[in-house]
Amino acid sequence: MRSPAARSGAGEDEISFGRPASTAEGAEDTEDRAEQVPPSPEADAAAVATIGLTKRFGSQLAVSGINLAVPRGSVYGFLGPNGSGKTTTIRMLLGLIQPTGGSQQLLGVAMPAGANAVLPRVGSLVEGPAFHPQLSGRANLGRLDAADRTASPRTASARIDAALDRVGLLAAAGKRYRAYSLGMKQRLAIAAGLLRPRELMILDEPTNGLDPQGTREVRALIREIAADGTTVFVSSHLLAEVEQICSHVGVMRAGELVFQGTLEQMRGRGAARILVRTAEPELAAQVLGRLGLADVAVDGREVTAQLGSQAPETVCAELVHTGVPVSGLDTPRASLEDLFVELTGEGFDVNG
Predict the structure, then answer these.
(1) Residue 136: count of CB within 10 angstroms of its CB
(2) What is the DSSP letter of 328?
(3) Residue 207: helix, strand or coil by DSSP?
(4) What is the pLDDT of residues 289-323, one digit of tens each?
């Protein structure tokens, strides 16, 4: 079946949560779609897997042959500057638009062919929440729940209350949507994705536009969802989001996936450096150069260089042997901000 979706009348918002594309946007590019690539056997073990996933809009290449591998049980941060292809990728994953080429799987099921089988196990929030402003939070969820033909009407009230309670909105369930804060609106959208038990949640910029309190609330909710064993795939352009809630990360740049791995693997990408604090920085710089260390730089009483294959203790021993008074020695790694700028060529909002 298709994920719950409803269209409102004149003057009301449109609601769409993970509905597969049928004749609209997906049909426009059917003619230029490449032959589907069969997923590899390893994809069955992943919550999200793609092979060569590609999307063109006319002459514009929006997503260029990406190979996603999202481990089950992970919180996967899909990071990149605005316009890098994150939302387009998410819309392809959910069947909202058709890919031009490649293939994708959700929970081991090929998409979009298996949409009816797999989408009931997937919750999603794409491009911000949209609800009927004059209805209460409970009434809005009621409309979405009623659109689910596999859900029993007899248990609808219990499902809706459970979802509202899960996101901390049960006390505000009778409040009109227009009176909700931005954080409450985002949480209600996540509640819509939790009306049924989900194995995978796909969230597109869930903290976008929120104040610090709303951001903390949504991040805490994502941690709670992940703690229950649900795989969370969350797109973001905020480094703080990735550092605080994600175990794995994929980095997009101009439609290409330029890095994928654990957060620790990302941190380990930076070239190890050595920092020496000394009253004799020029002499220390000469020693580091003699040892073959590259990119030696002096800044006041600090000298830095790329460590390369040298062991820090060997460098320290040589400095002392040469008569350099070493008051401090460190081996700092490049910051995540530096690494992301290196990968994407753009700066990021560090604090969110």
Answers:
(1) 18
(2) E
(3) coil
(4) 999 998 899 999 999 998 888 899 999 999 999 99
Distance in angstroms (rounded) separating the CA atoms of residues 129 and 131: 7
CB 256 within 8 A of CB 88: no
DSSP letters spanning 145-206? HHT-TTS-GGGHHHHHHHHHHHTT-GGGTTSBGGGS-HHHHHHHHHHHTTSS--SEEEEEST
Name residue, tokens 């769409």: 16
pTM value is 0.73
| Alpha-carbon distances, residue 182 vs 174, 189, 334 (angstroms) | 17, 11, 35
Q: What is the pLDDT of residues 117-129, one digit of tens each?
A: 999 899 988 877 7
Q: Which residue is it, tokens 């590019």?
A: 29
Give me the pLDDT at residue 336, please.
73
What pLDDT was estimated at residue 170? 94
> How confident is the model over 333-351, as pLDDT tens digits?
766 777 777 777 765 554 4
Single out the residue of 330, 323, 327 nearest to residue 304, CA to CA: 330
Question: Phi and psi of 275, rounded to 5°?
Answer: -125, 125
Helices 212-227 and 182-192 cross at an angle (nearest 10°) of 20
Cα distances (angstroms) measured from residue 214 to each of 181, 210, 330 = 8, 5, 38
Given CA atoms 282, 288, 293, 299 in this order, what sign does their dihedral have? negative
- Report all structural domains of the chain as residue ranges with CATH numbers, in order of start: 5-262 (3.40.50.300), 273-332 (3.30.70.100)
Element (H, E) at 141: helix 137-146
